[in-house]
Model the fold of this input.
Amino acid sequence: MKLFGKKIKFPFSKKSISQRDQKYIWHPLTQHKLNPELLAIKSAKAAILKDEDGNTYIDAIASWYTSMYGHCHPKIIDKVQSQMQTLDQVVFSGFTHEPAVELSEKLMEILPKNQAKLFFNDNGSTATEIGIKMALQYHHNQGHDRRVMLALEDGFHGDTFGAMSVSSLSVYNGAFEGHFIEVIRIPKPDGRNNSDIIQQLKAIIGEHKIAGFIYEPLVQGAAAMQTYDLTGLDEMLKICKQNNIICVADEVMTGFGKTGRHFASDYLKQKPDVICLSKALTAGMLGMGITSCTQKVYKAFYSDDISKGLFHGHTYTGNPLACAAAIAGIELLTSEEIQNSIKNIMSLNQMFGNKMQKHPKIQNIRQIGVILALDLDLKTERYGNTRDQIFKFFMDRGVFLRPLGNTIYILPPYVITEKQLSKIYATIEEYLETI
Ligand SMILES: *Cc1c(COP(=O)(O)O)cnc(C)c1O
Done:
């Protein structure tokens, strides 16, 4: 039997993990009729994934931007392991614990200085869901009639209802469109259209009762790493702030060093009122989200009236093990070693980007921090045959990438070696020869 072009053994007595998977499991973002076989990963270390037949793959997207310090990092394992000997889980409403408090102190040291409070939750979608709730209830609590969210076109903020509502319209979400919250979408500033976007923004603010503005700062991940204009975004945020619109930065993808700074918002003059965090927050070890906010936002909920509180809570909120993983992650992020690796990846990506600039099969190249995206001169569906062929080409050569439409992007873990990066680059060049 062959899977991704690799020969795999077929033990007659024992079914493989891939085979056993098919009986009961329904996978995310998967049409099982079209994608019956899924590769079973047995182990992972640093930037390498190993499948059940022993084939290895370079994790060129850090397992969806989570495992930025590499898989199974000994420092993260140690922290979580020692935490689980003392406190595994406790209710976070009415109780608190050391790992959450230590994490709050460590996170506040690296977040933009205007952030004052942290609301713990479970994942990226809940982090943005709460960001939206904070914006809406901030106004509700003060008796303002504002119930509309403003969002950027092509944005992605998660798969729960509020998060889906503010994400760009997708054919995949068609079944739910009648149930969305009210959202106005505005195009991204690109440097040339800035004054036009500002005019549009002012008109929208005049016509609609906007409560909050949600945006992925500087780069939209799910939109195939589309970058946009820093100055334009700063101008938009300034106008939103002048109009008391709560600015919600979705840093679920961009957070924790990927753009070259700890947070993409660090590049902007206008700091967000709310920041949504997840993915690399817990260093790829456990699931958790956090939504931070300013004192101004928090104050609107702080009241003698119990109903003015934020009545949102998940059972595993503030899980001590997830907090321990996040603490280890921040310690790694702020280490000289990781900061140097980030700079090194940025310059290697830049050299490769420059080399590819004039390639006839490449339409556009974008780079920010450790993220490098290349648009191929190909017509493809976001999830379609060509995209699957590109995916397979790389997997066959031991490189795990997740092309989006005709875009190939890499977002490697910071611990990737130069040799592994060179292999990714070489495989991309090899692929370009085939099209
Ligand atoms: C991944 C992502 C989310 C959703 O996070 P989940 O943990 O998958 O729910 C939200 N916003 C952005 C920008 C993301 O990249």
Summary: The pocket of pyridoxal-5'-phosphate is lined by residues 123-125, 128, 156-158, 216, 221-222, 250, 252-253, 278-279 (CB under 6 Å). The two ends are 27 Å apart (CA to CA).
